[in-house]
Amino acid sequence: MTRLSSISPQKPKQRKKNMAQTLDWDVVIDEISGVYEILEAMGMASMSSSNGESLKLCVFDLRRGQNEGHELDKILFFFPPDVSFSSQLSVIGLSEGLIIFTRLFSPEAACEVIEAERHSHVFYEAEPDIWMVMAVEKNKEIEAIWRVDALQKVLKKVHSLFVMFHGSVRSLLDKEPSGGLIGSHLQLYVLFWNF
After folding, report:
1. Residue 56's Cα: distance from chain center in Å?
2. Per the domain annotation, does 32 fall within a domain?
3. Are 132 and 158 in contact (CB under 8 A)?
4. CA atoms within 13 Å, Cβ hemisphere of 47
5. Is the distance from CB of 186 to CB of 165 less than 8 angstroms?
6. Is residue 137 part of a domain?
7. pLDDT averaged over consecutive 10-residue blocks of the chain (195 residues)?
8. CATH number for the domain including 168?
């Protein structure tokens, strides 16, 4: 196994700081390859479309943007980036409404999937009140159950890789409350997979 550096005896805080330097890169490459294989098998490895309708990926914090006029504060990341703010808020507002509505009836089980006529919305609560949502245009050739399961795996892997390299989203928000750092880190993952 290839290691970037070896671990030397250090204080716990120093050890945590150097964790990214001691990653097992074989494991990291396997994780990234796994996500790409899922997307490729679904015909989504390169899903950019001219109208931006085939895929939307967003990460948002339910705790933020609760006051009128500050709704954009809840958006930590949105792909594609050229979607208007009103469209972004529409996707996130729908997602937030569905999450809150389902919590009323099933507080112990989070909203996971919404199947609409033209789109599937896959939800993943990555951390408490930090949600990842992927809205994907339906493809009649791919079985819906398999597609949703694969998309949930993609969201979980993206979060897992993010935490491996950068720590939890909440800890980054505590350090940098604007959320800009999270967005820039996530943008690198999206560019890597060439959605």
Report:
1. 11
2. no
3. yes
4. 25
5. no
6. yes
7. 36 43 49 54 46 75 86 88 90 91 87 85 93 83 67 87 88 88 78 56
8. 3.30.450.30
